[in-house]
Amino acid sequence: MEEMMLNYQALSHGPIQVQHTQSVDVGGQMLQSIKTYVLVPGDDVTEQPEEVQQACNAWWTPQRIAAWQGEIERIEHILAIA
Question: What global pTM score does this model have?
Answer without folding.
Answer: 0.80
